[in-house]
Amino acid sequence: MPTFTAIVIGDSTLLIRCTEELLKAGHTLPAVVTKSPLIEDWCRKNRLRCLHKDAPDLKLHIEELSYDVLLSIANLDILPEWMLKHAARAAYNFHDGPLPRYAGLNATTWALLAGETSHGVTWHEMSEKVDAGKIAVQEIFPITAEDTAFSLNARCYETGLVTFKRLIENIANDNVELTAQVGERSYFARSRRPKDASLIDPKEPVDDIVRLVQALDHGPYWTALGDARLLAGGELFVVGTAEVVERKSPNTVGEILSRDAQGIVLAAAEGTVRLGRIEWPNGEPVDIENEAKLAPGRSITSGTKLTEDFRQLLQAA
After folding, report:
1. What are the CA-CA distances from residue 77 to residues 30, 147, 188 (Å)?
2. How far apart are CA 132 and CA 110, in angstroms?
3. Are strands 5-9 and 28-34 parallel, antiparallel or unpaired?
4. Mean pLDDT, residues 162-187 taken together
5. Which terminus in the chain has less CB density within 10 A, N or C?
6. Angle at Cα 155 formed by Cα 230 and Cα 282, nearest 5°?
């Protein structure tokens, strides 16, 4: 198979796995560009040249190199135009969502919040406009009812690796078929957050509550989006899991119906929902069975009062 020269840039372990495939296929790698200590260490162990993404002399070092392709892999920083243009043939970026519908950041969370039934990944040509270049490879897969942001990110990761192998084969054989992005474009900025500070509102339908919790469940990984939260008796709790118990409207929306060591059952619109993995904002687990504010019969703040009480809570902190 013909080979090419590439520079890879990014900060996730997906870069490591893709780079391993790149080298396995016999392609030349003049440098890896990253700001991840993990990737820097991996480069040292594998005797690969590593340039720090934020180094003041990065431009000087990059322009000394000759490369056919720039591959941006799980890279959340906007790259300068000079870097894209220095690639002799093309620059491609990995995006963990279907384009053009989910451009920007945190695509999996926004897709789950929107109730999408499918998701996907896209390798696209890089252009001046973020996530707007022509599509080189795209693969769509179904979203399951059990999917969380964590599981959906993992599926994007694995699909990203599979489609990367396809991409580099196409690049090597000079048969990348670029297609224009078609359809409605949505862009999700870094600063965008779920509505109402990600507070669970029992006046919302149970499916919406479950969707909120799953969309903010990133497993063991920290995210700036934060977690789903519950406001009870003026106290803030973090909620990690949610599932529908019954699809029958209870008499008192917002009332805690029962509890055990693992969670509480909450009356919400159109049914009841079980909320679990309840923690304090500092990450410590809550002793649910002995927490007075989570006792059966207590009510959870909802509606407009929810955000008003949350503002007061923040001001008092």
Report:
1. 21, 27, 14
2. 18
3. parallel
4. 97
5. C
6. 30
